[in-house]
Specification:
The complex is a heterodimer of chains A (404) and B (377). Chain A is of the alpha/beta class and 404 residues long. Among the domains of chain A are: 3-90, Alpha-helical ferredoxin (Fumarate Reductase Iron-sulfur Protein, Chain B, domain 2, Orthogonal Bundle); 298-401, Rossmann fold (3-Layer(aba) Sandwich), CATH 3.40.50. Helix content of chain A is 51%, strand content 8%. Chain A has helices at 3-6, 21-25, 38-51, 68-72, 79-90, 97-103, 105-112, 116-124, 126-136, 152-157, 160-164, 175-181, 183-195, 211-215, 219-238, 248-261, 276-285, 306-311, 314-323, 350-367, 377-387, 394-401, and strands spanning 168-173, 198-202, 242-245, 273-275, 298-302, 327-331, 371-373, 391-392. Chain A has a 4-stranded parallel β-sheet, sandwiched between helices. In chain A, strand 3 (242-245), helix 16 (248-261) and strand 4 (273-275) form a beta-alpha-beta unit. Chain A is globular. The relative contact order of chain A is 0.11. In chain B, the strands form 4 sheets. In chain B, strands 1, 2, 9, 10, 11, 12, 15 and 16 form an 8-stranded mixed β-sheet that branches. In chain B, strands 6-5-7-8 form a 4-stranded parallel β-sheet, sandwiched between helices. The chains are: A alpha/beta (404), B alpha/beta (377). One iron/sulfur cluster (SF4) binds at residues 16-22, 39, 42-43, 73, 75, 77, 79 of chain A. Flavin-adenine dinucleotide binds at residues 8-14, 31-38, 40-42, 44-46, 239-240, 271-274, 276-279, 291, 343-344, 356-357, 360 of chain B.
Chain lengths: 404, 377
């Protein structure tokens, strides 16, 4: 009866009916003629690569792993997984120093945090940027995310006792960005969860989710991080805790990329790992209440980050924001902002990255919101740099709208 | 999560119903696994004579202009097909009025438009054809990757440089009365085809290309945009895996992405398309509807599902989900009280709604109507 299921191949590439729909939605294909596109790089190429690895093409590195091809495909082909898996399997070239630096988000953070003001000053200098541009090929137009000291972990540890007093508890996978660059988002989450009677604890030593390593050709290091994180998540799950997150990419990586690309089994923890937006929405649906300010007013344009679109959980952010009294909500058309993690930081991708984001940027300018809402930190850098509009995580907007 | 209505499938039927319900003040969600058959849409709505008033209104609010002009349209291989209602950029004309001398213009390096087949087809009809290619510097980048030189990628460029295209064609034009161009214009800006028509001193006819369809994708984008503007929630790339039924009603559905988060609604609409979109599924032993397991009549003998001649009407295309007079779905012989069905998943079981895109629109409007009536009770 289930003939097709028995013959299902990895990445489901044999289901491809060559309809070309994915090619219409690939943001890279729109701007980079050297990229063969999702159909060619994915299911079509897979057929050839299985015959002979000779057919692996280096141009697959232009894929940003945004997964828009998968969202569009009517046949359930895991197009982007096929492409990334091929890069892991066949690309034997060593990642460049630049890529290793960009990929090591937590190492950068650990090394630089004690001297954060100095690093910020140095990476902000025109001369440093020119040197980075020339030596490491990190595009000079990019603003480096600022490093913040002390980090979020230290802050939360100093509030351990009061957090433990809440009757209900969750663990928080904060990710590199909250810890090193933007502890305020973590603090905002703590504020909102506390308002719901939920206390927040750290995981037992989380590591960077590893997405930047996957896309920069360092899958072995990524796998180590994955094994480590799954064990850390398991400890929380064993204590009966849910684990919440504020970054769509970290969440997506740990839920989907660990098993699909790194062969790391996360089945025992997957269901307990949630975006905080989903956790909060589900609590409110079950009757919990948040007290909002009566005089809150904001025109918000919401941008669904690619990985959240793929997760299918943008709806929780949308619903939460619409729930806040005084919010005027616009859903932006689903378009990639062009940054795709470390992709847009590379000199060779800068132009493409900005061209990809153009449709989104001009729509934001037309809507002219007070603030752009988005659950992804790299989208935030890209949109702020390219449009001048402030970008906030929905959690921070919720925190701002709460009665103090 | 709770909605007034949840629609399964975001193609022409799902979006039309969604627009109608959302315009009537209902809170709805559309869940759609992938993109729809609109990506292959020729631009004319088969079986529709004149657009229903409501369709005109819903579509024009979305920025989609339709025109009604019974006649024929030019097919990609140089034949003609009857049509009456189409998107504004699709030409419909009395066959006799098609010109005698035709200039077919293609873009250099574009292989999804069969200019020589077109010419052969038209020559059989007694027309005289000349084929020419144009090459513009803006297309150089695309030409680097011939496998990806597709309608949509070209259209993105043409939206910007259509004026140059006009100039090129004017240079090529001799004494032809008709110019045929591939349908690679008007992805973001639907007015580009008519501007090209105005700029060329001959009749300009756009002929279909291999997919993806530029007017089809534009239509999909505009319908979805309007739906979201009206406050509708569109869950793109998610798949309804199964449903919870209780006492003859659908209580909730479960999706791939939201796993254990049930989506509840007063009413559900199944608009999941035909085999192509996996709204219907076939295997050697039978034909089924995968989400609810609804009733479908099909010939017991598999050999009778299809006709040996490829060009014939294929019996399997007629099979579809069974419904009662109000378009309620039927499961195990009984109508499900709050599950309605519209669009291609009906197959040809409801001929009163017509066929193809016309059927998708009419059945969607009727189902939405029934949902609104039911929710007033
Ligand atoms: C290739 C092709 C070309 C066509 N061209 C024309 C034309 O030019 N003119 C014309 O008149 N008619 C045409 N038709 C006929 C076509 O069936 C109708 O025009 C119409 O577009 C069908 O619309 P629909 O909304 O019913 O289904 P579809 O457009 O097929 O949409 C169904 C949607 O439901 C989604 N879906 C399916 N199962 C699930 C699930 N379990 N959970 C969530 N989502 C699900 C699918 O992914 C899909 O997006 C064409 C059909 C095909 C297949
Ligand atoms: S959209 Fe899916 S089925 Fe269509 S060509 Fe791309 S991978 Fe193949
Ligand atoms: S993942 Fe994104 S960049 Fe890569 S092929 Fe798919 S759509 Fe294109």
């Amino acid at each position: 009866m289930k003939l097709q299921e028995y013959t299902r191949s990895k990445g489901n590439f044999e289901e491809c009916m060559k309809c070309t729909v994915c090619t219409a939605y690939c943001p890279v294909l729109q701007v980079n003629p050297l990229y063969p596109g999702p159909k060619q790089a994915g299911p079509d190429g897979e057929r050839l690569r299985l015959k002979d690895p000779y057919f692996f093409s280096n141009t697959l590195k232009y894929c940003m792993n945004c997964k828009r091809c998968e969202v569009a495909c009517p046949s359930g082909v895991n197009v982007a997984d096929l492409i990334q898996a091929a890069r892991i399997k066949y690309d034997k070239s060593k990642p460049k120093l630049r890529d290793r630096i960009l990929a090591s988000t937590d190492l950068m953070g650990t090394l630089t945090r004690p001297v954060a003001p100095i690093v910020n000053a140095v990476t902000g200098l025109g001369i440093t940027k020119t040197v980075l541009d020339a030596t490491l090929k990190i595009d000079r137009h990019r603003t480096f995310p600022k490093y913040s000291s002390p980090g979020f972990e230290i802050w939360l540890r100093s509030h351990k006792r009061e957090q433990a007093a809440f009757p209900e508890q969750v663990a928080y996978f904060h990710g590199c960005y909250v810890n090193y660059n933007y502890p305020q988002l973590g603090k905002d989450l703590v504020k909102v969860l506390n308002a719901l009677g939920v206390g927040v604890q750290l995981l037992d030593n989380e590591k960077c989710c590893g997405i930047a390593m996957i896309t920069n050709g360092m899958s072995e290091s990524a796998r180590k991080h994955a094994v480590h994180n799954v064990a850390a998540l398991q400890k929380a799950v064993d204590k009966g805790l849910k684990v919440v997150t504020t970054s769509s990419t970290c969440t997506f990586t740990m839920r989907d990329e660990y098993p699909h690309l790194l062969d790391v089994d996360n089945s025992a923890v997957k269901d307990s790992l949630l975006m905080a937006t989903r956790f909060i929405y589900e609590k409110l649906e079950k009757g919990a209440k948040l007290n909002f300010k009566s005089d809150f007013h904001k025109k918000i344009a919401y941008h669904t980050p690619c990985h959240l679109e793929k997760l299918g959980w943008g709806v929780f952010s949308e619903k939460l924001l619409k729930m806040i009294p005084g919010v005027e909500f616009t859903m932006l058309d689903s378009n990639c902002c062009g940054i795709a993690g470390t992709y847009g930081f590379k000199k060779e991708n800068y132009e493409a990255s900005q061209a990809i984001g153009q449709a989104l940027f001009s729509q934001i300018k037309t809507v002219n919101p007070d603030v752009v809402a988005c659950d992804c930190e790299t989208c935030k850098w890209q949109i702020e740099m390219s449009t001048g509009y402030t970008v906030m995580n929905p959690i921070s907007i919720l925190a701002q709208a709460l009665e103090d | 999560m709770k909605f007034d209505s949840v629609i399964i499938g975001g193609g022409l039927a799902g979006l039309t119903a969604g627009l109608k319900l959302q315009s009537a003040g209902k809170q709805t969600a559309i869940i759609s696994t992938g993109q729809s058959a609109l990506h292959f849409f020729s631009g004319s709505f088969e079986s529709l004579q004149e657009a229903p008033e409501e369709m005109k209104q819903l579509f024009s609010q979305a920025g989609i202009r339709l025109h009604y002009s019974p006649g024929v349209r030019l097919m990609p291989l140089g034949t003609f097909r009857e049509a009456a209602l189409s998107l504004e950029d699709i030409d419909l004309f009395p066959k006799a009025s098609f010109g005698k001398k035709v200039l077919i213009v293609n873009l250099l390096g574009y292989h999804d438009f069969f200019s020589s087949f077109l010419a052969q087809g038209l020559e059989k009809e007694g027309m005289e054809c000349r084929i020419r290619f144009i090459n513009l510097p803006e297309m150089e980048k695309l030409q680097l990757s011939p496998s990806e030189m597709r309608a949509v990628q070209i259209a993105r460029i043409m939206d910007r440089i259509w004026e140059k295209v006009i100039q090129e064609i004017r240079l090529l034009l001799k004494d032809e009365d008709t110019v045929v161009l591939p349908q690679v214009f008007g992805l973001q800006d639907a007015s580009v085809p008519s501007r090209i028509r105005q700029g060329i001193p001959a009749r300009v006819v756009f002929a279909g290309t291999l997919p993806p369809s530029v007017p089809g994708i534009r239509t999909q984008m505009l319908l979805k945009k309007r739906y979201q503007l009206l406050g509708g929630t569109f869950l793109m790339g998610d798949k309804v895996d199964k449903a919870h039924l209780h006492e003859g009603r659908v209580h909730s559905v479960v999706t791939q992405n939201l796993d254990n988060h049930y989506i509840e609604a007063q009413n559900f609409l199944l608009a999941s398309g035909s085999y192509f979109s996996k709204g219907l599924s076939s295997n050697p032993f039978g034909i089924s509807e995968p989400v609810f397991g609804l009733d479908i009549d099909f010939a017991a003998e598999r050999g009778n599902w299809y006709s040996p001649s490829f060009a014939d009407d294929q019996p399997y295309m007629a099979y579809g989900v069974k419904t009662d007079e109000n378009l309620h779905a039927i499961k195990d012989g009984k109508a499900l009280e709050n599950l309605y069905v519209a669009g291609a998943v009906l197959g040809k079981t409801r001929p009163e709604f017509g066929t193809a895109a016309g059927m998708a629109v009419r059945s969607a409007l009727a189902a939405a109507d029934n949902i609104l009536k039911a929710s007033e009770l």
